[in-house]
Amino acid sequence: LEPLFRNSGFLILQGDFNNNYAYGLMKLDKKNEALTRFELAKQFYKRTKHYLFLAGLENNLAIFFQKEGYFIEAHKHAKAAREAFKKLGDKTREGYSIDTQAQIYMAQGRYEEALKCANEAISMLKRGENYNYLVNSMETKSIIQLYLKDYAESVKTTIEAIKIVGLFGKKTDKRISIIEEKISLNFQKRWKTEELAEIVNLSKSRFEKLFKQELKISPMQFIKHLRLEKAKELMKTTILTVKEIGFAVGINDQSGFVRDFKKKYGLTPTEYRKSFKF
Length: 278
What we know:
Elements: H1 2-8, H2 11-27, H3 31-48, H4 51-68, H5 71-88, H6 91-108, H7 111-125, H8 131-147, H9 151-168, H10 174-185, H11 193-199, H12 204-215, H13 219-237, H14 242-248, H15 254-265, H16 269-274
Helix pairs in contact: 1-2, 2-3, 2-4, 3-4, 4-5, 4-6, 5-6, 6-7, 6-8, 7-8, 8-9, 11-12
């Protein structure tokens, strides 16, 4: 796939490719190749000023160095990730990076410091909407408590995590999950409701009813939501123009894009971008 990304001319995509490739190489224990790819991804992200992806890359590097036992480097990158997410106002990912710090301390055997970080991550993630990150941090805390031989508290933490999964982990109808994934992977496409319904062998009316029942919005509203969310992220983390961002997320009507963006977020795309000075 690499030639396709390279020939695309989009530096962000090339950075994303190398970042994900590096993570895969890391999992295969090909550390030298992984580090080379991480550094290459970092250069692409820096050139495009994609700060959100840069922060995520720092977190990946922290995990990489923790795995290799280079804890000073691991903490340095985890701290950089945390500070970057904080500047971007992304509390969810900031909490995730604090959990990474907890895991580094745990790998060092510094369990009290690890527990402090885990508690901080959980406190932050409880105010967010990503229950998966929250449950992961509670799992980290539970393991730390086992190392500290605080078995009763470890059980309590695990029970609390299970309750959270039961409360927020309601499974979506499999057919709607399939459509969610299809749209999410290609939200720029000009989808038609009939086309989506056909994928899961439902009539248009039955599909629309089931989709709204599961996600509380219509299929077309869901597509618009994804496009605007992605546009908001690009506005905050890249130097692309407003027009380029509109095209990148599949919105060709410039005036409609500005109008819908302001209606959803209370600011025009330009005003929103100015509110973030990295």
